[in-house]
From TrEMBL:
Keywords: Electron transport, Membrane, Mitochondrion, Mitochondrion inner membrane, Respiratory chain, Transmembrane, Transmembrane helix, Transport. It is a single-pass membrane protein. It is found in: Mitochondrion inner membrane. This is NADH dehydrogenase [ubiquinone] 1 subunit C2. GO terms for cellular component: mitochondrial inner membrane. One of its GO terms (biological process) is mitochondrial electron transport, NADH to ubiquinone. Pfam families: NDUF_C2 (PF06374). It comes from Temnothorax curvispinosus. Belongs to the complex I NDUFC2 subunit family. It comes from the Eukaryota. The lineage of its organism: Eukaryota, Metazoa, Ecdysozoa, Arthropoda, Hexapoda.
Length: 72
């Protein structure tokens, strides 16, 4: 019957799910480490070369937003 065919490969499915989870966790850690290293290098470069990265001018919303006119 149908229930016999459904259960035949369930072990393979469970093994693939567990294997996929483990591979995804390893890939996630690799990507996070890569991005962390990149961010650390960029932050260090910015700290060592402040002349290339001047402080941005502080701007209020009132200076950025334009006057709004409703369209009817």
């Amino acid at each position: 019957s149908q229930s016999i065919f459904f259960c035949l490969g369930i072990q393979k499915h469970i093994a693939c799910v567990i294997g996929g989870y483990i591979v995804s966790q390893i890939a996630k850690k690799f990507v996070e480490d890569f991005h962390g290293e990149r961010d650390t290098r960029m932050r260090d470069y910015i700290i060592r070369h402040p002349e290339l990265f001047p402080e941005p001018e502080r701007v209020k919303y009132s200076q950025v937003l334009e006057e709004w006119f409703p369209v009817r």
